[in-house]
Design a protein that fits this description.
By secondary structure, this protein is of the alpha/beta class. Helices cover 56% and strands 12% of the residues. The protein has eight helices and five strands; from the N terminus they run βαβαααβαβααβα. It has a five-stranded parallel beta sheet, sandwiched between helices. The chain is globular, with a radius of gyration of 16 Å. 30% of the residues are buried. The structure holds adenosine-5'-diphosphate (ADP). The site of adenosine-5'-diphosphate has 19 residues, from α2 and α3.
C-alpha cells in the first residue's frame, strides 16, 4: 500500500503515521525527519537548515532526490506511508512521474483537517515543550501560511484524481487513528 498523509504543521501527522505504519506494516517516511537528518552533512546541512529553521520549504528537486533514494530501499518494495511529502503540486507531479515509470500508483491520500486556531495553540504548546528550532511564534505563523498557500493546492490535485480522504484531526488521538483506518478500509 502506498499512502500519503497530508496535514498542516501541528495536525498530528507524525504521531498518526507512527501508528498507521505499525498497523499497515509499511515504513513511515517523513521528509521532515530526512531533511533534519541532513543537517549534520557538511555540504547540504547549512543549506537545508536555512530553509527549515526559517519555516520555508526545501527545494523540490532536493527533497525529491532524498526521498527517491529512500524509496529504492528493500523495505519500501511492498509500500510505504509518506509523511510531509508532497508539499507542493510540483512534488506531487514528480511523485506521479516516478511512480508511473515503475508502473505503480498511490492507493490513497489522507487529509488531516484541523482548524488554524487549534493548530496555533498546539504548535505554541509544542514549542514550549520540545524546543525545535522551527517552532518559534513567528515561524509557526509562517509555516501555517506556507501550508495554506502552497500545500493546500496539493489536496485539490488529489481530490480531482479521486484519491483524497478527509479525516477530522480535532478528535482525540485514538479517534483520529480509527478514522484514518476506516478511511483506508473504504479504498478496497
Ligand atoms: P511539520 O509538519 O510540523 O511542519 P515536518 O517535520 O513535516 O514538520 O517538516 C519540517 C520542515 O521540513 C518543513 O517546515 C520544511 O522546511 C521541511 N520539509 C519537510 N518536508 C518537505 C517537503 N516535502 N518539501 C519541502 N520542504 C519540506
Amino acid at each position: 500500500m502506498r499512502i500519503v498523509l497530508i496535514g498542516p504543521p501541528g495536525a498530528g501527522k507524525g504521531t498518526q503515521c507512527r501508528r498507521l505504519s505499525a498497523q499497515l506494516d509499511v515504513p513511515h517516511l517523513s521528509t521532515g525527519e530526512m531533511l533534519r537528518a541532513t543537517k549534520s552533512n557538511p555540504e547540504l546541512g547549512p543549506i537545508v537548515s536555512g530553509f527549515i529553521d526559517d519555516g520555508n520549504l526545501a527545494p523540490d528537486e532536493l527533497v525529491m532526490r532524498i526521498l527517491t533514494d529512500r524509496l529504492q530501499e528493500d523495505d519500501c518494495a511492498a509500500g510505504y506511508l509518506l509523511d510531509g511529502f508532497p508539499r507542493t503540486v510540483a512534488q506531487a507531479q514528480m511523485l506521479d512521474e516516478y511512480l508511473s515509470a515503475k508502473e505503480q500508483h498511490l492507493d490513497a491520500v489522507l487529509e488531516l483537517d484541523v482548524d488554524r486556531e487549534v493548530l496555533i495553540r498546539r504548535l505554541l504548546d509544542r514549542a514550549q515543550k520540545e524546543n525545535r528550532a522551527d517552532d518559534t511564534e513567528q515561524t509557526i505563523h509562517h509555516r501555517l501560511r506556507v501550508f495554506f498557500d502552497v500545500t493546500a493546492p496539493v489536496l485539490d490535485y488529489y481530490r480531482e484524481k479521486g484519491l483524497l480522504r478527509k479525516v477530522d484531526g480535532e478528535q482525540s488521538l485514538d479517534q483520529v487513528f480509527e478514522s484514518l483506518v476506516r478511511a483506508l478500509g473504504e479504498i478496497h
